[in-house]
Amino acid sequence: MKRFRLTDTSNYTDSQYQDYILQGVSRTFALTIPQLSKELVHVVGNAYLWCRMADTIEDDPQLALALKGHFSDQLSGLLSSQESTDAWVTELQPHLHCDTAPAELDLIANSQRILRLFRAFSPAQQSIIQQCVATMVQGMMHYQAHQPHSGLPNMPAFNDYCYHVAGVVGEMLTLLYCDYSKGFKDNKAQLMPLSVSFGQGLQMTNILKDIWQDQGREICWLPQDVFSKYNIQLQDLSKQRTNPDFHQGVRELVAIAHGHLQDALTYTLLIPKAEQGYRNFCLWAIGMALLTLKNIYKQPDFQQSSQIKISRNKVKTIFVVTHFIGRSNSLVKLFFKRIARDLP
Fold first, then answer.
1. Which pLDDT belongs to residue 28?
2. Closest alpha carbon to 19 in 40, 1, 33
3. CA 85: distance to chain centroid?
4. In this structure, are residues 307 and 256 in contact, taking their beta carbons and an 8 Å threshold?
């Protein structure tokens, strides 16, 4: 994919701007969201951009905790009010770090466009997105206040963190699809818990992939109790990269993440076969996560995420194969069993 470059969007409609900026803030979602039913493409894209704005605030290295809470609460409040984003943008922009990605800055500057689209959605869709963003912001601010430099205390805390930054997104997508499709809604009771597990599998993959990037920011999201079994102290994480005992902890988390991705596949196969786009959306995410986990499992002493990055050819293979077999549960199971081969 070509490198994203900012351009003049003053003549774009709100919908055109949303499609454009999505490519700048997430190449992955810019590819996968268009696979969804046309009635939901703009809704899900819009929801993702609100989550992206919340992430931008959370990730800013120079924003004080009180300001992060202030701007995050305002962001969440915009979705339940009739206010414009103008005052929020004017106050927030001078506080954002100079190294913030240009596309993220552009998104915030043009957030009123995203808000206008949001307010055109049905009341049910607005409520689902609003609840997701509110829950995400609440969780993010809790963990910002207790920002871990030496890991989260245990697996329950780790699971709770994953829920607030990813599981809640799985719930949101499921509720949006239940609102859209009766066939999908018929399986809601089974889908909702699986959607949380789906989100956790993806988030765990990202946490493992970004261990050393996070370490560079003096943050560690790993659960202490998993590593303490192997006599690894996470406050000394920078010294542990080549330690075989540390590798055992990493591989244990890979196995747990793999279990969640198996739930994700179960979730996907419950999606009505007529919803081929949503199946592709899910299968692509699962396939890329499984391949990343395999690379981590094989090379737990990696130094940079680029070392365990999956190749474009493998990504393309997932896209092409699932496009042809996505309606067949038996063929999907066989294909993903092959992808996951060698994982614990």
1. 80
2. 33
3. 24
4. no
- Altogether, the residues listed in the chain come to a count of 344
| pTM beyond 0.85 | yes
Return the closest-CA partner of residue 117 out of 216, 16, 11, 34. Answer: 16
Q: How many C-beta atoms lie closer than 10 Å to residue 64's C-beta?
A: 10
- Mean pLDDT by runs of 10 across the 344 residues of the chain is 75 95 88 89 96 93 91 94 95 92 95 97 97 94 81 95 95 95 90 96 96 88 95 89 95 97 97 91 95 96 92 93 93 95 91
Among 142, 147, 85, which Cα is nearest to 113's?
85
- DSSP line for 16-57: HHHHHHHHHH-HHHHHHGGGS-HHHHHHHHHHHHHHHHHHHH
Say what the pLDDT of residue 217 is: 81
The number of beta carbons lying within 10 Å of the beta carbon of residue 149 is: 12
Nearest to 220 by CA among 159, 138, 153, 301: 153
Q: How far is CA 33 from CA 1, 23, 29, 67, in A?
A: 16, 11, 5, 32
DSSP helix/strand/coil, 1: coil
Contact 315, 63 (CB under 8 A): no
Q: To the nearest 10°, the Cα dihedral for 103, 108, 114, 115? A: 170
Q: What is the predicted pLDDT for the residue at 189? A: 94
152-177 burial, b if ≥16 CB within 10 A, otherwise e? beeeebbbbbbbbbbbbbbbbbbbbb
User: Where would I find the H helices in the chain?
Assistant: 14-25, 27-32, 38-59, 65-78, 86-92, 102-109, 111-118, 123-145, 155-162, 168-180, 182-185, 188-209, 211-216, 224-228, 244-269, 276-298, 312-325, 329-339
- Please check whether residue 248 is in contact with residue 230, taking contact to mean a CB–CB distance below 8 angstroms: yes
Facing residues of 134 across strands? none
pLDDT for res 1: 41
Give the Cα separation of 227 and 180 in Å (integer): 43
